[in-house]
């Protein structure tokens, strides 16, 4: 799933390549992906791209206003298997709905010219697209907590105080803290040497300092590595920077212990026992008990 660094890099890529270009046509290949109906996507034709921005893990492509309406924003949440692909040329024949991974295509300058596609692999289609006058009209954006990269040290205390959830759960809750998903939460907790099952409110001041520093270091480094990369290279760049996430069974690059995994119904997380849990492995949920 694209998280804060990748979405920030996609926004940067669009600002570099799409700004000042007019929309020639919009092809909607999946009706289920579009969550709004007024205005229709055809309202983008003739409008000029003015920018691209990020709200947590949401990506917004911004368009100029018209005398009768204000600016429009094409907002997307790429979900687990979605992606944005930039193209220099595209087919002029409108795609057939329901065929392949293409969900929406935007032609810029001219039909068949440059532009971008929103695609989603797999059978579970969760990518969502909204065309709105204000990004705050998107329900998911309206519910977002503070952005992870804008969070101050005092703000972290406010999030942790009185919250008895596990750190892993807190970090990936977008209404609590926006932008962090499964992968970077694993990386942040590993860097901070904290257990995914540690109780948020019980962290002492030293652990909170470490968590704050790790959060900003991991995300800032990932953004620095990602921004400037082409959209096609971002997934590989993300994988190359991960130390524990998706590395089950491999040695921890810090201590050499074997990276372990805890699995849930639809996802899993990874951690290092030596670095994070005092050498004790966390029992997989598929077993009869959890070791804290």
From TrEMBL:
GO terms for biological process: base-excision repair. Residues 243-277 form the FPG-type domain. The keyword Transcription does not apply. Residues 2-168 form the Formamidopyrimidine-DNA glycosylase catalytic domain. InterPro entries: DNA_glyclase_Znf_dom_DNA_BS, FPG_cat, FPG_N, H2TH_FPG, Ribosomal_uS13-like_H2TH, Znf_DNA_glyclase/AP_lyase, Znf_FPG/IleRS. Its cofactor is Zn(2+). It catalyses: Hydrolysis of DNA containing ring-opened 7-methylguanine residues, releasing 2,6-diamino-4-hydroxy-5-(N-methyl)formamidopyrimidine; 2'-deoxyribonucleotide-(2'-deoxyribose 5'-phosphate)-2'-deoxyribonucleotide-DNA = a 3'-end 2'-deoxyribonucleotide-(2,3-dehydro-2,3-deoxyribose 5'-phosphate)-DNA + a 5'-end 5'-phospho-2'-deoxyribonucleoside-DNA + H(+). One of its GO terms (molecular function) is 8-oxo-7,8-dihydroguanine DNA N-glycosylase activity. It comes from the Bacteria. Keywords: DNA damage, DNA repair, DNA-binding, Glycosidase, Hydrolase, Lyase, Metal-binding, Multifunctional enzyme, Zinc, Zinc-finger. The keyword Hydrolase applies. Its EC number is 3.2.2.23, 4.2.99.18. Belongs to the FPG family. This is Formamidopyrimidine-DNA glycosylase. It comes from Pseudonocardia alni (Amycolata alni). The lineage of its organism: Bacteria, Bacillati, Actinomycetota, Actinomycetes, Pseudonocardiales.
